[in-house]
Amino acid sequence: MKRLVIRTAWVLLIILCALGQTALAADTSKKRVALFDFEFGSVHHWWSWDWDIGKGIADMIVTNLVRDGTYSVVERKQLEKILQEQNFTNSDRANPATAAKIGKVLGVNAIVIGTITQFGMEDKKIGAGGLSNKLGGVLGRVGTQKGKANVVVDARMVDTETAEILAVASGKGQSSRSGVDLAGVGGGSGGGIDMNSSNFQETIIGEATRQAVDELTRQLVEQAEKIQATQIEVNGLVADVNENNLVLNVGQNQGLKVGDVLAIERIVRQVKDPTTGEVIRTITEAIGTAKITSVDARSAEAVFSGVGQPKVGDAVKPKK
Fold this sequence. Notes:
Layout: H1 2-28, E1 31-35, H2 53-68, E2 71-73, H3 76-86, H4 90-93, H5 96-106, E3 110-121, H6 127-131, E4 134-135, E5 138-139, E6 143-144, E7 147-159, E8 165-177, E9 180-181, H7 198-201, H8 204-222, E10 236-242, E11 245-248, E12 261-272, E13 279-295, E14 300-306, E15 315-318
Parallel strand pairs: 1-2, 1-3
Antiparallel strand pairs: 3-7, 4-5, 6-9, 7-8, 10-11, 10-15, 11-14, 12-13, 12-15, 13-14
């Protein structure tokens, strides 16, 4: 009986390890995307204050995509940092060609850019003025017998290599009910209003926004196969060693991004063509791996882990 229990435990352990390896392989194959703030100039006249609806909508979609897990999504703070460093304006971001350039800097496969084409209430008692009351930076309480909200958002997925529009998506939301209550929903990502908060999403405009965002997210996920994952073709060297911190002579130009794991191999010998003297084969041995922590166009920083001690001149290759 004891042997049976031990054997069963080993089988379960093997199964769990296999499942873990499968999950890891699936995670590394994710397509990497970034989302710009959505453009909302066509509906901006509804609001007399600085409520960044476009940022709020984009944040909601990012949250949805992260929860879904189909894509690997660039953290919004990292995106904003790159945009500031590259000095891109809001109008630049709406241009597919510009979006592709930013995407290359970020090391993503696609950029999602979008527009809010409808965002408002259909109720004479509320109207634009009711939603535009500025009371300490939050929406004031507004009551009505009947209200209807309509939200429409459109998005385009841009290939960062070709600037080609790979896919389009559209989300529509409508909410209509009695007892509209637009109580204070301030504080958060949407320029003073947290559009991910339950306070906002319990309002009529919040309900319509959630419907539109969920529909748009579903369409983006369904079209994931249209994005071609970047094939990493790395053939580089270790340029500097400081304990376990490495500097590599390859970077974004070779398709590298933060989080990639590369193989570090020691060059044992080189085989040369006896006629021309050209190196025709390099014999190496594995000594460990390096995980990319920062990257620019021509170089990358990485943390080494393995059995050996890396040194300048070691080979850097894709991890098999």
